[in-house]
Amino acid sequence: MAGLAIILLAAAGAPAPPPRTPYLERPALVAAASQLPPPPPPGSATDRADRLHYETVTLALPDRTVQRARKLINMARPPYRQALSCALGAQIDPRLTPALAAILARADIDAAQAAGAVKFNGAPPRLRPNNDDGSPACDGRLATARPGSSYPSRHAASAYLWALILAELRPDRRADLIEFGTETGDLWVACRINWRSDAEQGRVLGQAVFRQLLQSREFRADLARARAALATAPPPFSC
Length: 239
Description:
This protein is mostly helical. About 60% of the residues lie in helices and about 0% in strands. Helix 2 runs antiparallel to helix 10, helix 5 (about 80-90) packs antiparallel against helix 9 and helix 8 packs across helix 10.
């Protein structure tokens, strides 16, 4: 988790800074997590719908979709940052726009901790889709290599939160940003790591965290700094 939180600051070769604290205090993180229902019990209507989607849609996805998932599911790698820059219409770069990179990196910690508050609240963990058939995800990893509950998708939460933050900074790019933020969670479904409702509820969590962040004076100050950085940001390097 820490690698994802600091990658935007370290990607250009600069030494990685120490992990930062979240913007939100524990009560606000719990308040965001409380917006989600419990994970769907085995055999429930949502669970049955997820399994039907997995069997009829996920397992039948074209190879180009699986390849895109393999390329972009890791939010800590440059291909994802570049695709996000294209959606934004400006380059997210730790050297050229450090304030922009920093606010995303720190907000990611909030999303991760809010997701953890749901995943580790004492409820039985929800097994990942590829746990049942023992098959590898699109990145070759087995379900046993990803401990913890599949519900909610932590990456869907982070990606949607990032999209909302960037849309706040550049409203004219909102449609593209929300589309890409939504797709990120869907790619984790395509990769057979999360169920469809895991991604859907991850996006709900991202929205809840964003609402809490807007009440943080420190976040709003960083948002202003990021807006100033974005005003002079270069266009995306390659789209």
